[in-house]
Design a protein that fits this description.
12 strands, 196 residues, 6-stranded antiparallel β-sheet, globular, 4-stranded antiparallel β-sheet, mainly beta
């Protein structure tokens, strides 16, 4: 079962942008497209997972500047979305109810770790992975048992002139959520769908 189909009954395929957080024990099966890009493909989400959360995505204000910089004629600035960052910042809220997202934000409140996108794929009109180009991109990042350990409440997608160092690049999306206490007994996979 492809990841997008796994979310169909949650209504996620009907939303222009969504993000899903999946806690699991076993590694997910990666299905590559065989075009030479080792990150081009998608993961099969198993029927049995520890927990799942599905929520609407938020694009921050500076995303339009990010896109404009990438679209300028003759530009060689930056690259597309390449990293997912996860953090522990609650703002004026609590771990169970973090301060709501602000589209004016340009970074996480308290970033914990940044990791390169594990895989990406386009989605077709049914929300299924496809090797064809579409206006819907799905980014997946998996944090292994030893990665991103802590009380997680926020995350964001970064690109442009971003690299593996926190604080670089431009944030495109941002989302907060009630705490996930990740320990070294679990993996955490984040599936982020962006519609253009």
């Amino acid at each position: 079962m492809a990841s997008a189909r796994a979310f169909a009954e949650k209504g996620a395929n009907k939303v222009k942008g969504f993000v899903s957080i999946i806690q699991h024990k076993e590694p997910l099966e990666f299905i590559p497209y065989g075009d030479g890009d080792p990150t081009h493909g998608y993961f099969r989400i198993p029927e049995s997972v520890m927990s799942e959360r599905h929520m609407k995505n938020m694009i921050v204000n500076q995303a339009s500047v990010f896109m404009a910089k990438r679209m300028r004629p003759g530009t060689s600035w930056g690259s597309g979305i390449g990293y997912l960052e996860i953090g522990t910042g609650v703002g004026s809220g609590s771990t169970q109810s973090p301060e709501p997202e602000d589209p004016a934000q340009t970074g996480l409140r308290e970033p914990l770790v940044r990791k390169a996108i594990t895989s990406w794929t386009c989605l077709d009109e049914n929300g299924d992975p496809t090797a064809e180009d579409t206006n819907v991109l799905q980014f997946t990042t998996t944090f292994t048992e030893e990665e991103a350990v802590g009380a997680l409440v926020e995350m964001g997608l970064f690109g442009g002139d971003a690299d593996e160092n926190i604080g670089t690049g431009m944030m495109f999306n941002y989302k907060v959520f009630p705490v996930i206490n990740k320990d070294e007994s679990m993996q955490l996979t984040i599936v982020w769908k962006v519609t253009f």
